DNA sequence: ATGGTAGCAAAGCTA
């Protein structure tokens, strides 16, 4: 048995955030870091800094301006047939997924689900329909999974009442609407996924991973939501030994509005 | 009831 530590973080621009990513890697020492919203094309991804820190394996899927995902690792990670490992679940070319194979036999999938716009109505707001379609395509994919898998990333949905600061006030706010929660439940059932956040921090305990930039004092108002998740195949979930949400990162200089999730495994 | 902030990249889009 060897220890394996995997982190996931919506970084909201890896270039603007390079100092705090470096601090996080030095302090937390994950073996693998999955990033979402890197906001950079592959050519100018700041890979040299990560390489110096020992993260010599880097699988990038970036694009200009928005979105973008990456997996950086200090242990080997492998891509197989490239198209197989970069799903386009929105069918519009946006860079929102990258997946790799680990030597221990686990498949690691890093996803950035679209936010879905402001209006929770697919007729009035096409982005909301695209978000639901994305989850639907993920569900079809999940039904066919044949390997032990860890699915991590920014799902942009907070499913439980204790995943948001006010269930009542967010019922009609995109990220916590019943239609999104139902779609996410369908995805969860499609592979019998284990929600590692709630395995380690059971309801009704408060658990958030995101706080808006628009609050005057994010910590004082604490109007958070749990938008980021780590879901494991049942056999992978059994290997998990610890899990945490790094809330202090929200208070670091020039923070992301999301904080990192970290899970430790014995594989 | 509204607007509040942030990054990219060069005005508005996405979040």
TrEMBL record:
Domain Endonuclease/exonuclease/phosphatase span(s) in chain numbering: 7-258
Keywords from the named record: Hydrolase, Magnesium, Manganese, Metal-binding
Superkingdom field: Bacteria
InterPro entries associated with the record: AP_endonuc_1, AP_endonuclease_F1_BS, Endo/exonu/phosph_ase_sf, Endo/exonuclease/phosphatase, ExoIII-like
Residues given in the record as Mg(2+) binding sites: 10, 37, 154, 156, 257-258
Sample GO molecular function, one term: endonuclease activity
Residues of the site described as Transition state stabilizer: 156
Annotated site (Important for catalytic activity): 228
Name of the protein in question: Exodeoxyribonuclease III
